[in-house]
Amino acid sequence: MLSAHSLFQEMVDDDRAYRLFCSIAASGEAQGGWENGRIAALVPDSMRALAPKITRHGADEDKHGRIFRALLKKRGLEPVEVPPETDYTALLERQGIGLAHDKLRRDEPLTEQDVLVYLAHSRVTEQRASDQMDMLKKHFADDPDVGKAVKVISNDEDNHLAYCHEELLRLAAEGHGRFILDALVDCARAEMRTYRTVSLAVMDHMGRILGWPAPKAAALAAGINAMYAFERLGGWRRMTRLAQPAPERRDALGGREIAAPAL
Predict the structure, then answer these.
(1) How far apart are the first and last CA of the chain?
(2) Dihedral through CA 139, CA 145, CA 150, CA 153, nearest 10?
(3) What is the average pLDDT across 91-104?
(4) What whole-number distance in Å separates Cα of residue 28 and Cα of residue 84?
(5) Do the Cβ atoms of 263 and 151 come closer than 8 Å?
(6) CB-based contact 195:232 (threshold 8 Å)
(7) SS3 assignment for the chain
(8) Which of these, 40, 83, 43, 47, lies nearest to 208 by C-alpha position?
(9) 260 pLDDT band (50/70/90 cuts)?
(10) pTM for this one?
């Protein structure tokens, strides 16, 4: 029977599949760390109060990259080059979603609208990350190899999502509501297409590594496409709604950074 648990367990149990999974995850997290660091450095003066939280966000992403690299090291594995068709961050940028890396490499201050785009992009992508890590935590929180890492990263992703909700609601109340909603909708629609593309590509690579028979590979592809159809029909709206975080998640990125755990 196909299930999230059985599929992920196959990847964990096979060195080549595990190596690819952790390499893709580490690369994406490192990219997010760099992006947030550059955005924090370029925030306009009118929004400088956000810079420490953006810096914290980037530090968390860097930490996650270190965690995935540590998981590889623990198994005596080296990272592999990430196949371009599985590079979620690069594919989103190619669609014009988020802030272009060319812009972030310049030493020119961002505009207020740039920061709104960054927050909207983060709200959508952090929803995806939070959902994925919640699924992994449900199945693997007690796993001796990855359980500790999954719990730490899941908590961080929930904090990042809460931070995006909180800041976007504050900025909407200051008169940016229409721009924020439009940015959220544009990003959500592009993200769900990109997530489908990347999911199919990752499953294709995993299927070849693990020797999946054609019916199993076809069933997984059908499941990914069915999820995409659901999201196109309205499931994407969960990524565009804004709500105040629970009290324990308020000012989630305003506190002390938590170091990566020993694995």
Answers:
(1) 31
(2) -170
(3) 90
(4) 12
(5) no
(6) no
(7) CCCHHHHHHHHHHCHHHHHHHHHHHHHHHHHHHHHHHHHHHHCCHHHHHHHHHHHHHHHHHHHHHHHHHHHHHHCCCCCCCCCHHHCHHHHHHHCCCCCCHHHHHCCCCCCHHHHHHHHHHHHHHHHHHHHHHHHHHHHHCCCCCCHHHHHHHHHHHHHHHHHHHHHHHHHHHHHHHHHHHHHHHHHHHHHHHHHHHHHHHHHHHHHHHHCCCHHHHHHHHHHHHHHHHHHHCCHHHHHCCCCCCCHHHCCCCCCCCCCCCCC
(8) 83
(9) low
(10) 0.93
108 phi-psi bin (left φ>0, alpha ψ -120 to 50, beta other): beta
Question: In the structure encoding, which two tokens stand for residue 68, read together?
Answer: 């995935």
Torsion angle in degrees (nearest 10) through CA of 64, 69, 70, 76: 160
Six-digit token string for 64: 């996650």
CA distance 55 to 36: 6
What tokens were used for 2? 């196909």
- pLDDT reading at 4 higher than 90: no
